[in-house]
């Protein structure tokens, strides 16, 4: 049977990928952030999964806004790296896991989550930056296959935080019911507090972020009880991406161990957080 071995929550700020792609990680501006990643990266390198389910959002890069599915899953054999306007990132294309994707879609739909299926999908910074946070030097290919799980966090009305946590619970059950012995990692991406435009551009709310970093481990139900308006008020118009961490958290189940956490301000105009959990099983 497949099992979830660990969960990683991480911001997916595009400039984090750009700093890596342009060899700037040792610069004084970036060094503290990348130093903070090192212990988690070392642990994950010793616990390589067969496949990662990466919960993320497209930022109107690969997908346009004429159709906005609330939840979607990629079922392709591979995913090209999206061109976000200045050429694709120089990182490997992403290898899919079609049979596993199909199983997840079927199981989630049976569980009343009406998932949109993406048979063809390019992946933007929301997915590739977390892969780079996990694995800075992939060489020719990433260490594991990937199932993209998309959440609408950019168009009102976004799903509730409670629905995202419930999706995580259903995702965990769907993973565990896959008959092959797959080791699965689940990534929750986006956040932390940030607002990219408007009067409150540059908003950082460290108090909220610290509360969130604690509660994602100890009290995810508390985070699930917040409304979308509360996320936007406290964490900023793009800070609502944090609801995607709840999908990851739900998939892990109740017995987890915090391996490592780091929090750094600023990365571009945002607060960047990362927390790694080992799943201790049922
Ligand atoms: C930026 C974009 C994002 O999608 C995000 O999650 C954080 C920051 C940016 O453009 O700086
Ligand atoms: Fe984003």
UniProtKB/TrEMBL annotation:
Keywords attached to this entry: Dioxygenase, Oxidoreductase
Domain Extradiol ring-cleavage dioxygenase class III enzyme subunit B: 9-271
Record InterPro entries: Xdiol_dOase_suB (IPR004183)
GO molecular function: ferrous iron binding; oxidoreductase activity, acting on single donors with incorporation of molecular oxygen, incorporation of two atoms of oxygen
Pfam families documented for this protein: LigB
NCBIfam families: PRK13364.1 (NF009901), PRK13365.1 (NF009902), PRK13366.1 (NF009903)
Protein's recorded name: Protocatechuate 3,4-dioxygenase
Native source species: Streptomyces phyllanthi
């Amino acid at each position: 049977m497949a099992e979830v071995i660990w969960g990683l929550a991480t911001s997916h700020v595009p400039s984090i990928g750009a700093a890596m792609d342009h060899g700037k990680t040792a610069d004084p501006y970036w060094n503290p952030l990348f130093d903070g990643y090192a212990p988690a990266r070392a642990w994950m390198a010793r616990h390589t999964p067969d496949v990662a389910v990466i919960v993320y959002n497209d930022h109107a890069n690969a997908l346009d806004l004429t159709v906005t599915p609330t939840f979607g899953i990629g079922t392709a054999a591979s995913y090209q790296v999206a061109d976000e306007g200045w050429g694709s990132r120089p990182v490997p294309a992403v290898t899919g896991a079609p049979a596993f994707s199909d199983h997840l879609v079927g199981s989630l739909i049976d569980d009343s989550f009406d998932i949109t299926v993406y048979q063809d999908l390019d992946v933007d910074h929301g997915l590739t930056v977390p892969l780079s946070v996990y694995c800075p030097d992939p060489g020719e290919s990433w260490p594991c296959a990937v199932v993209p799980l998309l959440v609408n966090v950019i168009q009102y009305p976004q799903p509730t935080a409670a629905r995202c946590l419930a999706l995580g619970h259903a995702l965990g059950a769907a993973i565990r019911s896959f008959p092959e012995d797959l080791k699965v990692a689940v990534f929750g991406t986006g956040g932390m507090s940030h607002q990219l435009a408007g009067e409150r551009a540059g908003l950082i709310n460290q108090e909220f972020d610290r509360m969130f970093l604690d509660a994602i481990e100890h009290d995810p139900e508390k985070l699930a009880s917040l409304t979308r308006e509360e996320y936007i008020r406290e964490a900023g118009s793009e800070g609502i991406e944090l609801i995607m961490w709840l999908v990851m958290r739900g998939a892990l189940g109740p017995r987890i161990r915090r391996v490592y956490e780091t929090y750094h301000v600023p990365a571009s105009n945002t607060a960047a957080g990362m927390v790694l959990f080992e799943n201790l099983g049922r």
